[in-house]
Amino acid sequence: MYAKLYRAARLLLPGGLATQRNERQLEATEWLSRAELEAWQLERIQRLVRYAYEHVPFYRETYRQAGVHPEDIRRLEDFQALPFLTKEDVKRHREALVAPNFRGKLYPLETGGSTGQPTQFLVEDSFWRWNVALRNRGRGWYGVREGAKMALVWGAPRDMPDQSWFRRLRARIQRHRVLNAFSMTEAKMETFAEMLVHWQPAMIKAYASALALFAEFLKTRGITGIRPRLVETTAEKVTGPQRQLLKEVFQCPVADCYSSREFVTIAYECARGGLHVCETRCVEIVADGRVVPPGQLGEIVVTSLHQFAMPFIRYKIGDMGIYDTAPCPCGRGMPVLREVVGRTHDFLVASDGQFVHGEFFAYTFRVKPEVVRYQVHQTDRHHLDVKIVCREPVSDVWLDGVRAEIQARFGESMHISLQVVDKIELTPAGKHRYIISEVNPDFV
Question: Which of 145, 267, 327, 336 could be joined to 274 by an S-S link, Cβ 3.0–4.6 Å?
C-alpha cells in the first residue's frame, strides 16, 4: 500500500510526470527488435550530434578539425567517424562543453574519484528523470517497485542520508536504511543485521565488495532470515565468488547494474543473466580506435542520448568490456554485455610485457580460505606490492607458496612484496580497490 501511495505522490512532485513519460517510453522500446532499436537510436544520435555541432563550442571545433559534419551520419556506422571524448577533455574544456543556449537549471556533479582526481561535469533535470525511469524498469524485472523498502551498503559521502536534515527526511520517505561501507565495524554490522531481520527490505543495493563482507559476517555469525527479492550490485564489478556468496546468504537473484557517475545506469542485468545496455545509451566496444565485433575485448565508449546541456558523445569511460555474440534468451532486443571486464587500470603488466587482468588474483585467492581480502599495487613494470588480510596466522612456507604462484605468472624479474596486514584502507568513496596499477596499458 505504501509503495502505491509513494508512486502516486511522486507524480505531484516536480518532474514526476516527465519521469512517468520516460517510463512509458521505455515500456515501448524494451521489446523492440535489434533492427527497430538501432533505427530508434540512429534518429536520436543524429539529433544529438546536430545539436552539439550547432550549440556546443567544444564539439563544433573538434568536429571541424576532424573534418566531420552532422549530415555525414546517415547510418550507425557513420557515428564511428566522430572523435572520442576523454576525461581529460572534460577537465580541460568543461565550459566549452556546455551549450550556452541551454536555459534550464544545471546541477554540478563529479565522478567518484576512486582512481584519481574527480572529474567535474554538469547535468540537467532530464538526467535525473531518465535515471529514475531506467532504475525502476530494471528493478521491476524482479518485482521490486519504486517505494519498496531498500537497504543500502553504501559509502560515497555525498550519497549518505545523514549529511543533512533533508537527506534524512528523504531517506525516511523513500524507506531507505543504510550501512556505511566506509565504517563497517562488527558492532555496526550486527546492529544492521538485526534491523534487517525485522524490517525485511524488498531489495538490497550495495557495492559488491562491501556487501560480500557483510554477507560473510552473516554467514559466520549464523544470522539468517534476511530475504529480499533482489540484491543489486553496482559501482564496482561483482566477482563470481561474490555472486555465489550473496545468492547463498540472501536466497534471491543478484542483478548487476553497470553504472557510472557520468551516466548513472548504463546496463542492467535481467533475470536470465543478460547485462542489457539501456537503449538511451549508445555503447561501443573499441580497440585501436575502431569498433570491434561482439566477442572481442575493447574499451567501453558511451554516448548518452538525452543529455543536451553538456553532451557526452563517444566518451571513453575507462572500462573494458565484451559484447555477447548471442541475443539474450529473455527476448529483449537491447544488446548484451557479456562482461564488463574491468577498468583499464585493473590490468597489470608482467615482466615480459603481457597484460594480466586483475581477475588473476581473484582466482588465486579464491581457493585460499585463509585470505579475507587482498590488494595489489603495481608501481612500475618491475615491482608488485601485494597486501593480504588473513583469517588466522599463516606460515612462511604458505607465504612462499603464494609468492611462487604470483612469480610464475609475472616472471622471475618481477620484484614481489607480499605482506600480511591487519586492514586495507578503503577509498574516500568507501569502496575497496583490489587492483591499483600505475602501469597503464593503452588499448585504444
Answer: 336
